[in-house]
Specification:
Length: 204
């Protein structure tokens, strides 16, 4: 039976030595082992990830996907120099000016909306790269997933907890080695073509 998502009315997060935010305490029992290996996106990171993902909207990533993949929290009060108490909110984080933290919905092996989102994000990134760069042979999702997985496995064996921010940015910034200039020229070409279409419409 699939477990229902917890309410998580509040949680306490603390900034680590790596300058990332990590969960220290939550409002109810959740199957998390260990709990302090759970990371959250702070407001600035959330916006940076959102901006980096915008080019993928036409390849299957939409605002609703973000709402489904993260619990959303706003600041309740500061707890000393490095801790913050957060309270749950149902506000859509892209549509509010209030600072908001995002907690990935990783509840258990059977209820994992965040990992579903990561898979969709990876698929969209691969589609974007194939559409932008003229590869001799198109990239496959499995190929890119395996390459990114190697770095994740290395961190795991070194006992380093993987934070959600570099995990997402690694996907959003991935370009096959040697094709960085091809991606930049492809993006510029698309911008020029799009601008030309606008100019043609305005001239009618």
């Amino acid at each position: 039976m699939v477990a229902s998502l917890p309410k998580l009315s509040w949680m306490i997060v603390q900034k680590g030595k790596d300058s990332f935010w990590w969960v220290k305490e939550v409002s109810e029992d959740v199957y998390w082992d260990p709990i302090d290996a759970r990371s959250v996106l702070d407001p600035q990171q959330a916006m940076q990830v959102w901006e980096a993902a915008k080019p993928l909207e036409r390849y299957g990533i939409h605002a609703e996907d973000w709402q489904n993949a993260f619990f959303r929290f706003r600041i309740d009060k500061r707890l000393g120099e490095h801790g913050i108490r957060l309270v749950r909110t149902e506000e859509r984080w892209q549509q509010t000016e209030k600072p908001m933290f995002l907690l990935p919905k990783i509840i258990d092996p059977f209820q994992n909306p965040y990992m579903d989102f990561v898979d969709a994000l990876l698929q969209a990134r691969v589609k974007y790269l194939n559409a932008t760069i003229d590869f001799a042979e198109k990239l496959s999702v499995d190929e890119v997933k395996n390459l990114l997985h190697e770095g994740t496995q290395l961190q795991y064996f070194e006992g380093v907890s993987l934070h959600v921010f570099p995990e997402l940015m690694e996907i959003l910034e991935y370009v096959p080695s040697g094709f960085e200039n091809d991606l930049e020229s492809g993006e510029n070409r698309k911008t020029e073509d799009f601008s030309s279409e606008i100019e043609e419409q305005e001239a009618l």
